[in-house]
Amino acid sequence: ENKELEERVEVLERELLEKHELEKENKRLKDLLDFATDNDKITVTGARVIAKNPGSWFNIMLIDKGTKDGVDVNMAVVTERGLVGRVFQVGPNWAKVRTIVDGQSSVSGIIERTRDNGLIKGNSGVDLNEGMCRMIYLPLDTDLKPGDKVLTSGLGDIFPKGIYIGEITEIIDEKRDFFKTAIIEPGVDFERLEEVLVIKSSID
Q1: Pick the residue with more confidence: 32 or 94?
Q2: Phi and psi at residue 128, in whole multiples of 5°?
Q3: Contact call for residues 101 and 59 (beta carbons, < 8 A)
Q4: CA–CA separation, 52 vs 9, rounded Å?
Q5: What is the Cα–Cα distance from 114 to 68, expressed in whole angstroms?
Q6: Phi then psi for 9, rounded to 5 degrees?
Q7: DSSP codes joined into one string, 79-110
Q8: Is the separation of the CB atoms in 47 and 67 below 8 Å?
Q9: Residue 94: how many CA atoms within 13 Å on its side-chain side?
Q10: Per-residue pLDDT tens digits for 103-160
């Protein structure tokens, strides 16, 4: 009887765990759906993250949508928490995404409050904490503050304007280069990314 009870407890614990996982997934998918509904100027397709490069922070990831689903190179990838990155390689039913924290990533951004433009670069792996970005080429006279929100500027025709990127945590004066650099903490939690939206088209 004890063995049967133990087995029954194991089954119930497993079912409870599966229920909790389903509830978490439903919440994530609902948040993505709400984002897509609230941003009716963009056309999106949902995708699951099926592989990530090794390490704590994931600079490159593989998703389960490709050309058969209308996904193409340079399409922006987002979640309800902000910009993830862009597609840089695509197959029939998969695509590779370079995230904004990757060292080769660059995104034109704008400070929401001051309207200053700059270029957001990923982590080079040398001078920046993992999971953070730098915003460079900001004017020396700009009035930046920690907590300022950073959005996509819409320049460059890849990322639609107004997508949340993250917030400034630190400002560095690069006087020898005549500009300021801001350290940005992205809105997206790249460690725990499971589902994303690919922006197939947008109306500015």
Answers
A1: 94
A2: -145, 140
A3: yes
A4: 34
A5: 41
A6: -65, -45
A7: ETTEEEEEEEEE-SS-EEEEETTSTT-EEEEE
A8: no
A9: 7
A10: 899 999 999 999 999 999 987 655 556 789 999 999 888 899 999 999 999 887 788 8
Using CA atoms, how far apart are residues 75 and 16, in angstroms rounded to an integer? 38
Question: Does residue 79 contact residue 197 with C-beta atoms inside 8 Å?
Answer: yes
Which residues does residue 180 pair with via DSSP β-bridges, in sequence order? 138, 173
Distance CA 13, CA 20 (A): 11
Burial status of residue 202 (CB atoms within 10 A of its CB: 0-12, 13-18, 19 or more): middle
Three-class DSSP category at 93: coil
Contact, 114 vs 153, CB < 8 A?
A: no
Taking alpha carbons only, the member of 191, 196, 185 closest to residue 52 is 191
**DSSP at 105:** -
Q: Which residues fall within 8 angstroms of residue 50, CB to CB, at 6 or more apart?
A: 62, 63, 64, 94
Give the rounded distance of the alpha carbon of 94 from its chain centre. 18
Tokens at 137, concatenated: 């080429």
Rounded distance between C-alpha atoms, residue 61 and residue 74, angstroms: 14
Nearest to 79 by CA among 186, 175, 174, 4: 186
Q: Cβ–Cβ contacts within 10 Å for residue 46, how many?
A: 16
Rounded distance, CA 192 to CA 49, Å? Answer: 10
Model confidence, pTM? 0.81
167 three-state secondary structure = strand
